[in-house]
Design a protein that fits this description.
By secondary structure, the protein is mostly beta strands. It is 9% helix and 37% strand. It has two domains: 87 residues, Chitinase A, domain 3, CATH 3.10.50.40; 43 residues, Thrombin, subunit H (Beta Barrel), CATH 2.40.10. The protein binds zinc ion (ZN). The site of zinc ion has 5 residues, from loops.
């Protein structure tokens, strides 16, 4: 199945919104293919079109807990043309990371997900549910508006 949902994600402690599909296409995802954080699919299980659900996920059901093992030092020359500065978000083969410290010859970087350790609250409305195409099942993600376009 492919579910299309409108959602708003907030941090429950201060109500700050970190993500929302408002003003754009609803998010489409292939159910049961780990496209979403684990708790999201679990909480939406059995939801029908038009249904609204609100739930709060602890870090374990969202982006996990940050780990010191994900903070590493890289040689400055690995950055090539880029001059790393603290707070900078960069992309690598191993995924996105944040620069947390710049030394003379090395750069300390953090591969933890920016939302690791956070509790997340979601308000979700189911806009559409349809059968997945065989191509989508093969790719492991949803196609079309709100999904992968390729
Ligand atoms: Zn695809």
């Amino acid at each position: 199945m492919v579910a299309s949902v409108h959602y708003t994600g907030t941090f429950p402690e201060d109500g700050e919104e970190f993500d929302s599909s408002k003003g754009s296409e609803p998010l489409s995802f292939l159910v049961g293919h780990k496209q979403m954080i684990p708790g999201f699919e679990r909480e939406m299980m059995g939801a029908t079109v038009g249904e609204k659900r609100t739930f709060t996920l602890p870090p374990e059901d969202a982006y996990g807990q940050p780990s010191d093992e994900n903070v590493v030092e890289l040689a400055k020359e690995q950055f090539g043309e880029i001059t790393p500065t603290e707070g900078m978000m960069l992309m690598s083969d191993a995924g996105p990371f944040r620069v947390v410290g710049v030394n003379e010859e090395t750069v300390k970087v953090d591969f933890n997900h920016p939302m690791a350790g956070r509790t997340l609250k979601f308000e979700v409305e189911v806009m559409d549910i349809r059968k997945a195409s065989s191509e989508e099942l093969l790719h492991g993600h949803a196609h079309g508006p709100g999904g992968y376009q390729h």
